[in-house]
Design goal:
The complex is a heterodimer of chains A (114) and B (113). By secondary structure, chain A is mainly β. Chain A contains no helices and eleven strands. In chain A, a hairpin with a 3-residue loop joins strand 4 and strand 5. Chain B has 113 residues and is an all-beta fold. Helices cover 0% and strands 56% of the residues of chain B. Chain B is built from no helices and eleven strands. In chain B, a hairpin with a 5-residue loop joins strand 6 and strand 7. Chain B is globular, with a radius of gyration of 13 Å. The chains are: A mainly beta (114), B mainly beta (113). At the A-B interface, strand 4, strand 5, strand 9 and strand 10 of A face strand 5, strand 9 and strand 10 of B.
Chain lengths: 114, 113
Amino acid sequence: KAGVTQTPRYLIKTRGQQVTLSCSPISGHRSVSWYQQTPGQGLQFLFEYFSETQRNKGNFPGRFSGRQFSNSRSEMNVSTLELGDSALYLCASSLRTGGDTEAFFGQGTRLTVV
Amino acid sequence: AQSVTQLGSHVSVSEGALVLLRCNYSSSVPPYLFWYVQYPNQGLQLLLKYTSAATLVKGINGFEAEFKKSETSFHLTKPSAHMSDAAEYFCAVSEAAGNKLTFGGGTRVLVKP
């Protein structure tokens, strides 16, 4: 069974640009969550999508957005990139939504903003 | 709001020695608690989870954790460290609804031969 696939693995962008990251969940999983990991702030929740609907959102500015497609694949978009957006972005998929559900993480996309 | 505190950002243990990683949580309701491990340039892998069944939870790779409500703790242990245990470990708490995980700051484990 294939795991969570995130593309691309590495990305370099310039300040002010926008970027789109992609996440393909495990087959049959309907929930996708996104996290930002930085040395200073650690792991922070961005948002969760379930059945194409945003279920929960973390404390990030509106420049961070996401969506989920009917096949459960998800994308997140960051507009007007800032240097502080440099981070490892992790996607996690779960079979269903619910606090006791195991989340399976992808390897992440490492975004560098220069 | 829920929060998680991991005591010690770095822990150094000798191969074969006990591994003890501390985690305390703050939650107004009975929580779901998790321990994840992250190897360099990798995502997170679930070690174990507590979901209100047995208070002593056994996970993969010989790890276990004990939920102590009175101490609001969920410490992770492994009796005998192996070189392959060198990684960063994260404790996390989840709300009852949804899949939002709140993580602690992480503890990096170094295993000395």
